[in-house]
Design goal:
9 strands; 12 helices; Butyryl-Coa Dehydrogenase, subunit A, domain 1; binds flavin-adenine dinucleotide; Butyryl-CoA Dehydrogenase, subunit A, domain 3; about 400 residues; 3-stranded mixed beta sheet; Butyryl-CoA Dehydrogenase, subunit A, domain 2; alpha+beta
Amino acid sequence: MYFADEPEHVIQLRDTLGRFTENEAPREKRREWQAAQTWPRDVFAKLADLGVCGLTVPEEFGGLGQDWYAATAVIEELCRGGLFLAGPFIQCAFYGGGNISETGSPEQKATLLPKVAAGELLFAYGLSEPDIGGDLASVKTRAHLEDNGDVVVINGVKRWCTGADWADFILCFVNSDPDGERYKNLSMVLVPSHAAGITREVLSHQNLIYSHSFDVYFDDVRVPAENILGGPQAWNDGWRALAGRSLDVEKVEVAAMNFGLAQSAVEEAWEYAQQRHQFGKPISGHQAVRHELVQARTQLEACRHLLYHAAWLIDQGRPASVETSMAKLFIGETGVTIGVACQRILGAYGMSEEFGMAQTMRDLLGMPIVGGSSNMQKNNIANRLGLVQ
Ligand SMILES: Cc1cc2nc3c(=O)[nH]c(=O)nc-3n(C[C@H](O)[C@H](O)[C@H](O)COP(=O)(O)OP(=O)(O)OC[C@H]3O[C@@H](n4cnc5c(N)ncnc54)[C@H](O)[C@@H]3O)c2cc1C
């Protein structure tokens, strides 16, 4: 794999998506979506028609077969149009396709995955809570069984639930046995996001603004036990769903978004530096600016290698926990460095909403926190590599 050309189908996919984002997500549209903190349903439907949501779904369930490398490339390419298409793509193909393919029950796979492949089902993550961030094994949202085990009843609050208003399902991570052993008292439940007993309160934030994020309150929310991810027998087995291969996929997906954002910053600064003239020449002609630009490009290239190597390992079915954490960590931190350098090259315009840079930078600043902070990745890498503590 090292130093090989990308497979022909990925080259073609990039070409198609490059034209798609250029035509369907031009800058003026992106400014509208940004101001409204929303994403375009009609454009997403056209994107889904290209079949890309099937890249995380096995063929037997209507997908193209799981191709994590290609799906990673889709995120990268969509980020050229901001996160307005990459966000919902992830919440369909990765949150849905990834988790249900990996840990769904046979019934969940048969009923939900064909709709995921068609881009017709969207998911939100209900993991974080007001008192719980990185320490997800300590979630307090409580679930218990009623009606002879046929119904799950959920009470509690989830925080930062992105897309809780438009997603079809919230993947809700619950404590299903407060007296149980740590890690063996957790379940993941597919909760229809407009089920009775759910209320929402919108949160204010400056990153990932393709959507609002919410506090979601669960007040005696009742769902069938069939909605436990993996089926009723997966009750109290939710940590496996969260921390297994799905977590590797999740890290790659966040890293891919992060990489796409960093690439956008470099491309915008690269173009701007050749157009902006100061002291009688393009600012790209001043050595300090030249060096900043090539430094950012070089750092970006290092990010690219880590990202696609991690995706490739997942495709090969090889252990990837360390490499996916390294990619998430390195791209998160390097993305901020790249963003700061690129924003500075735009001078005052790096702060103006007339350019993409200001929003790209706000997004880049959040990336080392969301989806498992940099410190969490360092802890994981140290533990996996057996570093004595
Ligand atoms: C815009 C946005 C959208 C989001 N969308 C979602 C979503 O859809 N669903 C969802 O569930 N969550 C979502 N999140 C939440 C996000 O995943 C969390 O912010 C993230 O997991 C970190 O949790 P925290 O912010 O509570 O930080 P904390 O866990 O409280 O950590 C705070 C700081 O302490 C450090 N720290 C904590 N523990 C340790 C340790 N053991 N060792 C070293 N350092 C440590 C962390 O690295 C961090 O720097 C979103 C957040 C934002 C901002």
